[in-house]
Every structure is written in structure tokens, then in C-alpha cells.
Design brief:
With about 60 residues, the protein is mainly α. The protein has two helices and no strands.
């Protein structure tokens, strides 16, 4: 596959993803974790704050 084919942008497509309750909860946790880590990376959260938030959510 040529390199350019890997990164095609899909436009004007209706995409429906269905998740069960467990998958929805796992996705929420994953998103929260990513947000917390990004805030830490930007020096908005301290190490202690990051660790506390991660411990509470996992």
C-alpha cells in the first residue's frame, strides 16, 4: 500500500459505532486518562494531582 493511501480522509460518510455499557465506561475512563495526562504535560496538573486523578478513575 502506498504511503499516501494510509492517511485518506473520509468525508461525507455516516459512521455509527455502537458500544455496550462496559465499552462505554472503558472509553470514558480512557478519555479521562488522556485528558489528565495532557493537562499534566502542559504543566496544568502537578505529578501529585495527576496520580490522584488516575488512582480515582482506575
Amino acid at each position: 500500500m502506498p504511503e499516501t493511501d494510509k492517511y485518506k480522509v473520509v468525508e461525507n460518510q455516516n459512521l455509527v459505532i455502537t458500544l455496550d455499557d462496559a465499552q462505554q465506561e472503558e472509553l470514558k475512563k480512557t478519555i479521562k486518562c488522556g485528558v489528565y495526562k495532557e493537562l499534566h504535560k502542559r504543566d496544568i496538573l502537578s505529578d501529585a494531582e495527576l496520580n490522584s486523578l488516575l488512582e480515582r478513575n482506575f
